[in-house]
Amino acid sequence: MNIFLIVAGSLSALAALMHLGCIYFGAPWYRFFGAGEQMAKLAEQGSNKPAVITSGIVFMLLIWSTYAFSAAGLITKLPLIKIALILITLIYTARGVAGFFFISNPMGRSSEFWIWSSLICLSFGLVHFIGLKQQWANL
Question: Model's pTM, two decimal places?
Answer without folding.
Answer: 0.93
